[in-house]
Amino acid sequence: MFDVSFGELLLIFIIALIVLGPARLPEAIKTVASWIKALRRLSATVQLELNKELKLQELQDSLQKAQKSGLDNITPEIKASIDDLKRVADSIQKEFYDTGDQVKSVVNEINAPKQSEHADDDQTNKTSPSSTQVGKDDNVR
Q1: FRET partner for 5 with CA separation of 20 to 30 A, picked from 27, 66, 71, 115?
Q2: What is the spatial distance between Cα 116 and Cα 123, in angstroms, rounded to a whole number?
Q3: Higher confidence at residue 127 or residue 24?
């Protein structure tokens, strides 16, 4: 990565020993090693992200080329697969809507007796005679 030979590495170690001293040198080596590890992880992450972006860009370019060339150039097997997928998607969509309609009808059937009960209760309350109330003008004996 840095193309440092053994002699150069030994010279850097001797200079660091003189500058830092034997007490602080192990701590400095640990710090530098952690920096190098962090840089390697960062560079690996960046490389992975760049590779993903490049692959995505290549796929998008291929898709655009395929769309430009049209579906006429594809093989009959792929056309048959596409047609099968369309038919399956349509049948699933139809089943979904049919199930939704069935659920709505069941909900309406469940709610219908409740609504008629409430309507009957409202009508009996309106038509039933109210309790006799004694007013000021009535003579109660």
Answers
A1: 27
A2: 10
A3: 24
Q: What is the pLDDT of residues 59-118, one digit of tens each?
A: 888 877 877 776 666 677 887 888 888 888 888 888 888 888 888 888 888 777 666 666
Half-sphere exposure of 103 (CA within 13 A, CB side): 6
* 107: helix, strand or coil: helix
Torsions phi, psi for 117 (to 5 deg) = -65, -45
Q: 66 vs 6, 60, 69, 140, CA distance in Å? A: 54, 10, 5, 98
**Nearby residues of 3 by Cβ (< 8 Å), 6 or more positions away:** none
Q: Which tokens belong to 120?
A: 């009957």
Per the structure block, which two tokens stand in for 3?
A: 């193309």
- Determine the longest span between alpha carbons in the chain, in angstroms: 128
